[in-house]
TrEMBL record:
Domain Thiazole synthase ThiG: from-to ranges: 6-249
Subcellular location: Cytoplasm
Top EC class for this record: transferase
Subunit structure of this chain's protein: Homotetramer. Forms heterodimers with either ThiH or ThiS.
Pathway: Cofactor biosynthesis; thiamine diphosphate biosynthesis
InterPro entries: Aldolase_TIM (IPR013785), Thiazole_synthase_ThiG (IPR033983), ThiG (IPR008867)
GO biological process, one term: thiamine diphosphate biosynthetic process
GO cellular-component term (any): cytoplasm
Protein's UniProt name: Thiazole synthase
Source taxonomy: Bacteria, Pseudomonadati, Thermodesulfobacteriota, Desulfuromonadia, Desulfuromonadales
Role of this protein: Catalyzes the rearrangement of 1-deoxy-D-xylulose 5-phosphate (DXP) to produce the thiazole phosphate moiety of thiamine. Sulfur is provided by the thiocarboxylate moiety of the carrier protein ThiS. In vitro, sulfur can be provided by H(2)S.
Length: 256
């Protein structure tokens, strides 16, 4: 028993998945199933959130998955807040993955607008999960405002480049008082395992699943990566050092 707890809610899985870029709804569902995820994020701009018969939403069993609406595509705080309010008005739970990415080339999150929107949404009673640069100062400020998690990026969205921000994520983890979910750029199960070995509480993956020739199989692989990384973190990894140290020493054992 090692639940992930976000805003008082308990989850078995530490892998969250996104729903963009899949070749078909069937591929998306097989990735979700393979991954064992319990939280699935959906871009509010891509769905008709008011309509349960929406072609994508109708494939997500809301008894099984927590639907986490995201504000992907928002370019400023005002737009993100408006999207979050629309989702709540449409009957979604008041959870929102806050994404504000004004620059279409790198899709890096805007820290000023993200903090501004988080302040407003937290005050309005939303459970806010903000996507951020791996910036320890911003992460702290967001936690002070009352966000439920922080979600630093490993690398730009869709880049599959892994934990390029590793050193900064380590500081965020060290200082965090809410779960740290590494989001974006994780292109292989080993990237997810690495984040979990460092002590991240969870990871979010989308592109790596969606572009795989076998999204269900890749979902399973990421699930295993996340679980292995978490187990290793809990078990305690050996320290790294520069010099060699014999694993079969010839002295210092059996009474020598
Ligand atoms: C912020 C954002 O949009 C991410 O959640 C993204 O969906 C996941 O990143 P990858 O697509 O790189 O896995």
């Amino acid at each position: 028993m090692d639940p992930l707890i976000i805003a008082g809610r308990s989850f078995h899985s530490r892998l969250l998945v996104g729903t963009g870029k899949f070749a078909s709804n069937a591929a998306m569902v097989s990735a979700m199933e393979g991954s064992g995820a319990e939280i699935v994020t959906v871009a509010l701009r891509r769905v008709d959130i008011d309509n349960p018969a929406d072609s994508m939403l109708s494939h997500i069993d809301r008894n099984r998955y927590l639907l986490l609406p995201n504000t992907s595509g928002a370019r400023d705080a005002e737009e993100a807040v408006r999207l979050a309010r629309l989702a709540r008005a449409a009957g979604c739970e008041p959870w929102v993955k806050l994404e504000i990415t004004p620059d279409p080339y790198y899709l890096l999150p805007d820290p000023v607008e993200t903090l501004k929107a988080a302040e407003i949404l937290v005050k309005e009673g939303f459970i806010v999960l903000p996507y951020i640069n791996a910036d320890p100062v911003l992460a702290k400020r967001l936690q002070e405002v009352g966000t439920a998690t922080v979600m630093p990026l490993g690398a730009p969205i869709g880049s599959n480049r892994g934990l390029r921000t590793r050193d900064l994520i380590a500081i965020i983890i060290e200082q965090a008082i809410v779960p740290v979910i590494v989001d974006a750029g994780l292109g292989a199960p080993s990237h997810a395992a690495e984040a979990m070995e460092m002590g991240a509480d969870a990871v979010l993956v989308n592109t790596a699943l969606a572009v795989s020739a076998n999204p269900g199989g890749m979902g399973i692989a990421f699930k295993k990566g996340v679980e292995a990384g978490r187990e290793a973190y809990l078990a305690g990894l050996g320290r790294q050092q520069d010099r060699a140290e014999a694993s079969s020493p010839l002295t210092g054992f059996l009474g020598d």
